[in-house]
Write a structure and sequence with these properties.
Blueprint lengths: L28 E12 L2 E12 L3 E6 L5 H9 L6 E6 L2 E2 L5 H8 L2 E4 L11 H12 L4 H14 L16 H12 L6 E5 L7 H18 L2 E5 L3 H7 L2 E6 L2 E6 L1 H4 L5 H8 L1 H4 L3
Parallel strand pairs: 3-8, 3-9, 6-7, 7-8
Antiparallel strand pairs: 1-2, 1-4, 4-5, 9-10
């Protein structure tokens, strides 16, 4: 995929002098998709799609409504079958991986779905513990301690642990869902529209949280979003989905020069230029 740009090298001045070396993207590919094709019945949503995600980068993933952004994320996670193509995560080909290899990969990623997708019948504490119970063997006491630690990491008070999702605000639901995504100390986190439904202040606070977690934990972040502020504020690169494939990927300044009508409208349109 000739238009996919690699992130800046660690020796390149990123303008974020305060960031720790751990936060600087590397040239190591942690997720690679090649020739991915996904369809439903006679409808092809993605065709021969290529994409690389680099270690410790925050990759924003954008595209018009209905282009298949969430479909691709679900295909990577194995929730939606693909008709063709190869996906490697942490060097493991998910198509040929054994059950043990697949489980090992799944323990190294976390997912925040749209709207949070918390289990309504479980408390926040119990929601965070779901991945622990599925993948780990530990005592209830240790799981309780870890759940409270994850809540602290995402900026929620201990009192939130015993609340049900219906008792939380939209911003708290996002943070609780992120705490669950971080339950197993993942290396890679998938975020699907993490700031949708949040007011501008809440969205900015969530962006700051994602950036801080990347810097402190060395996370790689794959973020599907429409939020221009998020794209400008925290993303190292942005990948654009269109015509059933990744049209281009790179820093926003490169995308603003990319010769495609949708990309031009998105990154050089009236709403985009208001923030310049």
């Amino acid at each position: 995929m000739s238009d996919v740009a690699s992130p800046q090298s660690p020796d390149t001045d990123t303008g974020a002098d305060a960031a720790s070396p751990m936060s600087v993207p590397s040239d190591e590919v942690v997720l690679s998709a090649r020739g991915v094709t996904v369809g439903f019945g006679s409808t092809i949503v993605l065709k021969d799609l290529d994409l690389d995600v680099y270690r410790r980068e925050i990759l924003g993933f954008v595209g018009g409504s209905g282009t298949g952004k969430s479909v691709l994320m679900r295909a990577i996670l194995g929730l939606t079958p693909r008709r063709a193509g190869e996906i490697e995560v942490f060097g493991i080909n998910l198509k040929t991986a054994s059950d043990d290899q697949r489980q090992a990969v799944e323990r190294r990623w976390g997912v925040l779905f749209q709207q949070g997708a918390l289990f309504s019948s479980l408390t926040v504490r119990q929601n965070i513990q779901v991945p622990m119970r599925e993948h780990m063997q530990m005592s209830d006491r240790l799981m309780d301690e870890l759940a409270l630690l994850k809540l602290e990491m995402v900026g929620l008070p201990p009192s939130a642990a015993d609340k049900f999702p219906s008792e939380l605000s939209g911003g708290m639901i996002k943070r609780a869902s992120l705490a669950r995504a971080l339950a197993l100390d993942p290396d890679l986190v998938f975020l699907d529209e993490p700031t949708s439904g949040l007011d501008p202040i809440g969205a900015a606070a969530f962006d700051d949280l994602v950036m801080k977690l990347r810097e402190t934990l060395g996370l790689t972040v794959y973020m599907v979003t429409h939020d221009l502020d998020s794209l400008h504020s925290i993303c190292d690169r942005v990948a654009v989905l269109g015509e059933k494939r990744v049209l281009t990927a790179g820093p926003i300044e490169e995308l603003r020069r990319f010769d495609n009508d949708w990309v031009q409208d998105y990154f050089n349109g009236v709403r985009a230029l208001r923030r310049v």
